[in-house]
Amino acid sequence: MKAVVQRVKNSQVTVDGVLVSGIGHGLMVLLGVSEDDTEKDADFLVEKIIHLRIFEDENGKLNISLMDVRGELLVVSQFTLLGDCRKGRRPSYIKAAAPEKANRLYAYFIRRARELGVETKSGVFQAMMEVSLVNQGPVTLIIDTKEKDTKNKDSKTNEPG
Predict the structure, then answer these.
(1) Which domains are delineated in the chain?
(2) pTM for this one?
(3) Are the C-beta atoms of 148 and 138 separated by less than 8 Å?
(4) Rounded CA gap, 66 and 55, in Å?
(5) pLDDT tens-digit profile of 6-43?
(6) 78, 109, 120, 145: which one is catalytic?
(7) Which pLDDT tens digit goes with each residue over 121-144?
């Protein structure tokens, strides 16, 4: 799975001019599902995202997480994150999961975030959406479960101080 994570003041999704979801202070996540992703990838990614220390503490340091600030999460499915642009001028999406699998893991990711206590909203799978946001910082990160550190199975102890 691949995610683009943006710290936002607010974000919303509209489809055909109709607001379908929106959040205030929190994180907006564009989520791409690859053909070989599993629920284990979704579990890793949701835990990583909600515990990233990318919100400012009382000293202005990026030191607290979405859970700490009780922020919201907006998750939008975006298969184009799996686009391979290395050859030619047209991206190849051969690594993207088939729609049925992608939708199942997208829904699973959202369900897991909610089970972990995060107020979570979503876009509309396979719809042509307009996504707007006010990025705070700006803070934008790209996380790919295929690039996670495999040296230490406990990712919580793998983070610096």
Answers:
(1) 2-146 (3.50.80.10)
(2) 0.89
(3) no
(4) 7
(5) 999 999 999 999 999 999 999 999 999 999 999 999 99
(6) 78
(7) 999 999 999 999 999 999 999 999
